[in-house]
Amino acid sequence: MTLTAAERMKIPRQNMREQPPAERVKNFKEVPFGYTEDEAVEEAKRCIACKAPQCMTGCPVEIDIPKFIQQIANRDFERAIETVKKTNLLPAVCGRVCPQETQCEIKCILGKKHKPVAIGNLERFIADYERNKLGAKIPQIASKSGRRVAVVGAGPAGLTVAGDLAKMGHSVTVFEALHRLGGVLMYGIPEFRLPKEILEFEAKFLEKLGVEFKVNAVIGMQYSLDELFEQGFEAIFLGTGAGLPYFMNIPGENFNGVYSANEYLTRSNLMGAYEFPKSDTPIAQSKNVAVVGGGNVAMDAARTAKRLGAENVYIIYRRSEQEMPARLAEVHHAKEEGIIFNILMNPTRFIGDKNGWLTKVECIKMELGEPDNSGRRRPVPVKGSEFMIDIDCAVIAIGNGPNPLVPRTTPDLETNKWGNIIANPETQKTSKKGVFAGGDIVLGAATVILAMGEGRRAAKAIDDYLKTGNW
After folding, report:
1. Shared domain check, 345 and 255
2. Are 11 and 69 in contact (CB under 8 A)?
3. Residue 233 belongs to what domain range?
């Protein structure tokens, strides 16, 4: 039976069932359980099939959103995942970590009067359905071109460009500095948000497309870009990310117990510190943890600290909650799990004991002034409002800079004043012939899906370059 638009609008948005907060803070299992088939179909039926859909304009990889949602509504799950994977080879990742509320879902016409269609949840469902029920189906691959491409970095940009080029028939080798694939997806996002087995499934799918992976391969040390060209690679894509942590440059940041978010999350996520002593990488047990920052990384660090046994975990953020850049779902989950939000506050110094261990953080209260270059109101210190919080661990999550290794060893690769590689926004071409770049190394610390969008553009431009030789 075909539903009218009015009938579709009456269907309530389907919420995903989740682990109760009291249970999930004691484990690293994924928080939401995902949709059942019936729940997914019911949610898909909410799509009103508008004549001029806007949702696709908010998707950096241009998924045909109306088509795959209609296929789910018709229970044609196999074709739905085929539709998604035409432009997105990492749907299980994107369905879990992309900020849909500020991209595709904010464009949903239904959302003007009702809650928007849960596009991200449906993408996650169809990807999980493929993994659990269908197995990865290899798409049609072009005949072998005989052309070789090197991809530096196995993060979201690198994996995307590798998969797209492999489908085009090119021979692709991905060089990854760490011992596992995924980049920030692997070392930055906790297990309870993105299970490693899901990431590995999608990476193995790329292997089935013919992509070769070399781990523990640090380009810029083992090989320069010129040496990769000498080895026979005809084009290189740089997706080396933004892995250089920023600190606040305030007194006391050298005390034991003060971590960058990169170190804290890498120890836990990539090296399994949450399983110590089963794994051999520990994190010092802490009772009172302060996480400085208001983005997704800050929420990940705070929620990780809670699961590692901290009694009190504080988010310290210098603006109001309205300006907080973290996904709404992450803030909601953090609050449910008992994370304490200290809003409009900023650390001024860390204090430690005679043995060099952190014991306190001094903060100052802030108030919002006029908007700054980001469009958010500038935080201004309130004189004389300093106060102390007892802590034994601090995690600094205020952003990251570009990985400097490849630019430092490639003099003819142009960068901006922050160290980001300069690339053409339409083709991802850099100043060095045959070298393309995308993701956080170009954008600064951005979202997974924006990095993937740059990977897709780069793949098209690389294919054109290999075919024509035009630069």
Report:
1. yes
2. no
3. 148-243+401-468
Is the Cβ–Cβ distance between 80 and 127 less than 8 Å?
no
Residues contacting 12, CB < 8 A, separation 6+: 115
Q: Mean pLDDT, the chain, as a whole number?
A: 93
- Distance in angstroms between the alpha carbons of the first and the last residue of the chain: 54
Q: Residues 429, 39: contact at Cβ < 8 Å?
A: no
Q: Identify the H or E element spanning 95.
A: helix 91-97
Which 3 state secondary structure label does DSSP give 306? Answer: helix
Handedness of CA 106, 110, 115, 116 (dihedral sign): negative
Domain count across the chain: 3
Nearest to 126 by CA among 187, 50, 71, 61: 71
Task: Please indicate, yes or no, if residue 436 is contained in any of the structural domains.
Answer: yes
Residue 319 near residue 366 (C-beta atoms within 8 A): yes
Token pair, residue 458, equals 């780069």
DSSP secondary structure string, 348-386?
Answer: EEEEE-TTSBEEEEEEEEEEEEEE-TTSSEEEEE-TT--
Q: Which of 370, 398, 426 is the last residue of a domain?
A: 398
CA 154, CA 143: separation in Å to the nearest integer?
A: 24
Question: Cα(241)–Cα(448) distance, rounded to whole angstroms?
Answer: 11
The residue type of 144 is K
Per-residue DSSP letter, 107 = G
How far is 327 from 107, CA to CA, in rounded Å?
A: 16
Strands 400-401 and 244-245, bridge-based pairing: antiparallel
Predicted model pTM: 0.92
Which DSSP helix (H) or strand (E) runs through 42?
Answer: helix 37-44
Does residue 14 sit in the same domain as residue 102?
yes
In this structure, the answer to whether residues 332 and 199 fall within a common structural domain is no
Query: Which of the listed residues 382, 398, 414 is the one where a domain comes to its end?
Result: 398
> What is the number of alpha carbons within 13 Å of residue 283 lying toward its C-beta?
33
Question: Average pLDDT of 240-264?
Answer: 95
Give the number of other Cβ atoms within 10 Å of residue 219's Cβ. Answer: 25
What tokens appear for 323 in the block?
């300006």
List, for residues 320-359, the tens digit of each pLDDT value: 999 899 988 899 999 999 999 999 999 999 999 999 999 9
